[in-house]
Amino acid sequence: MTSLIPPGCPTVLTEDDRTGTSIETLRRAFMDNLFFIQGRFPEVATKNDYYLALAYTVRDRLLLRWLNSAKTYRDQESRTVCYLSAEFLLGPHLGNNLINLGLYEAVEEAMRQTGLNLKELLDQEEEPGLGNGGLGRLAACYMDSLATLEIPAIGYGIRYEYGIFDQEIRDGWQVEITDKWLRYGNPWEIPRPELILQVKFGGHTYSYTDDQGRYRVVWEPHQVIQGVAYDTPILGYKVNTANLLRLWRAEAVESFDFQAFNTGDYYGAVNQKIASENITKVLYPNDEQLQGKELRLMQQYFFCSCALQDMIRLYKQSGNKDLSRFHEKFTVQLNDTHPAISVAELMRLLVDEHLMPWEQAWDITRQTFAYTNHTLLPEALEKWPLDLFGSLLPRHLQIIYEINQRFLDQVRLQYPGDNDRLRRLSIIDESGCRYVRMAHLAAVGSHAINGVAALHSELLKQTVLKDFYELTPQKFSNKTNGVTPRRWMVLSNPGLTRLITERIGEDWVKHLDQLRRLEPLAEDRDFAAQWRSVKHENKERLAAYIRDRVGVTVDPHSLFSILVKRIHEYKRQHLCVLNIITLYQMLKDNPQLDMVPQTFIFGGKAAPGYYMAKLIIKLINSVADVINHDPAVRDRLKVVFLPDYNVTLGQRVYPAADLSQQISTAGYEASGTGNMKFALNGALTIGTLDGANVEIREEVGAENFFLFGNTVEQLQELWRNGYRPWEFANSNPMLKRVLDLIGSGYFSHGDTALFRPIVEHLWQNDRYCLLADYQSYVDCHQQVLQVYQDQAQWTKMSILNVARMGKFSSDRAIREYCQDIWHVEPVKIVLPATSYMTP
Ligand code: CJB
């Protein structure tokens, strides 16, 4: 047997093999894990075996930091941020952990010495797609920053068995494939089969007066499901802090349906088990579109109940007997309204299960929660029909009625006789079918409410939460989103990272404001040349990927203009298509036209049930097909739709962009974070005054940003006067021609019906005002082309963009949350002198 032990692998592990960071130790530990964890020897090991062996090697180093963090928090009874989110869109762990451990180069070398290529192993990792888009990715960036800033934090969410679907493109259409991300195991999580909490559903309640004269309510559920914890360490950048991401998986309670077994209903009992597990089976793939499905409400309640029960457990573990200081130990952020049911659940736990008086429980609850709103779109605002809600959560409905009554009593005092206001503020929508409005529950139950960009926070106060703002203006603030420079620069753009670090040192990775020190270099010709060459190499890499993945050859010397995000009408991917067809028409009209060669790259998933979004994908692919094959264009225009846009692909795409397309209708994109990733990687932005674009433009300077389109106020004015999109089309020959061309079947093999829904909507309704913004967009794009011809000027603008992006680090955002909302301080984690934990 011993002859099978790989050379260099010790038969007895030393302490250092779990924690050591020298190349030699890493190499030895890697071989050891291949052998003893994967059960493989090199001759038969697959790439995935090697990936897993490396993942376990890195995980050991994480665990050292994680356990020390957990122990320190416990010993010091640290105040802790709990980030409740139905989505955490983490992206692959391995590369990021290597960066944060500061071990990337060492491991790269250790792999090289073993005859392996780190990049190939990184590519093996199946990314955990536990989110739809911006909201879930923000949660992941915030977990990175919390750890980097050494803030004690726990992320609570759902361990979906199937994450966001994989997207394939067949005949130009999106096809959804289930995401079996757990197929080959997940080395980054630690299951906690002994950490199990019970969650009740359905049934009824009854009340009685106990022997001490207290009014008590008992909830007799119809069903009990158990939540099992799965823990993932989230390490900060070059600190010893590793925080906990605890995701819950639903399981059947083994003994619950013995009744069915006993009566011989074996299948019934098994069905019950399957139904229980269904709760965490799949992520709902809708972004900013309420689904209103019972299972979705079950998911939300399931993970919130597990999270709050777990917090109470941890609180009690630290020796506290009663829960009167719960809000001093924990501060809980609600990531949108998906976890808003927590407000009622904490009340239930405090009042029903821990026998706390209502007033005290309410005080604690409100001091515990804070709520972030991420969208103003009416179709995204969560509301649950009362009968559905009451049948699933009968006790919570009673609690919500009680909260609402007490809340409205106070409103009455402040606004006597203003019944209309009461109706608008009520947690229960009584305007037609009756609903529970989750944003109202979150607003009433929180001490702080924030939007995610300055403009969005203002609009929130003027529209969706206007009455709440008038009632309690002090609760409202803005927290502009941010992104982590670790994943979105250091990991994904090593070339630019190296170039910047050579000039200004490495401080900027933790203090992004330091990028300002690049400003003087914007005029440095030598630096500019290096800057351009990094961008060019990134574009070459993306071009190679495009060739492999979609079989289209694109020229890395052409202007890479990129639009990647979820497909949604308000994000206006089809406005970009109108511009592309306009350029195409110009080339057809004038084949000799001297036009900057351009490559338009799209990526993004559409919600499976969102017909218009899917049709937009088909339109992009159809237009791509015609243009890419038209000899008249002669490689001056290429259009590519990259399938299956996800975090991994984002990491390839942002570093390679010249132009970032941020073209949503003003007032609709709450913030956007892709806009930040592009600019940080040196792309210039063509964009509207929407979301965080406004602040990006303020920071980088109006002269370094391509602005177009109507403002929110101008659009409001347009609608007030009656928006008539056909007038824009009829009075603009090129626009009319472009719309007619789509309608004529030119891009659909003569099929005039295919794209009719898009064209007719634009002519007749145009909810998102594409036609009103079209000319301004086309003109602005021409300006882009002009500047691009002056490469020195373009590069200068690119450098200045990067130099001025400091504000958009998620570290800045998290610092603001810590100071203004959470009131929490960093806790230093010191590793013990010996590598393992001291007893
Ligand atoms: N957002 O991704 C989602 N899903 C939603 O259901 C609602 C909003 C996005 O959240 C991001 C993070 O705050 C924002 O940057 C983005 O504008 C918004 O659409």
Structure, explained:
It catalyses: [(1->4)-alpha-D-glucosyl](n) + phosphate = [(1->4)-alpha-D-glucosyl](n-1) + alpha-D-glucose 1-phosphate. It is an enzyme of class 2 (transferase). Allosteric enzyme that catalyzes the rate-limiting step in glycogen catabolism, the phosphorolytic cleavage of glycogen to produce glucose-1-phosphate, and plays a central role in maintaining cellular and organismal glucose homeostasis. The chain has a nine-stranded mixed sheet. It has a six-stranded parallel sheet with strand order 21-20-19-22-23-24, sandwiched between helices. A three-stranded antiparallel sheet has the order 14-16-15. It folds into two domains: 80-91 and 127-481, 3-Layer(aba) Sandwich (Rossmann fold), CATH 3.40.50.2000; 499-709 and 776-805, Rossmann fold. The model is unreliable at 1-5 (pLDDT under 50). The chain contains 34 helices and 24 strands. The chain is 47% helix and 15% strand. Helix 2 (23-36) crosses helix 3 (47-76) and helix 4 packs across helix 20 (485-491). It is globular, with a radius of gyration of 28 Å. The chain binds 1-beta-D-glucopyranosylpyrimidine-2,4(1H,3H)-dione. 1-beta-D-glucopyranosylpyrimidine-2,4(1H,3H)-dione binds at residues 132-135, 138, 287-288, 336, 374-375, 380, 452, 481, 669-673, 691.
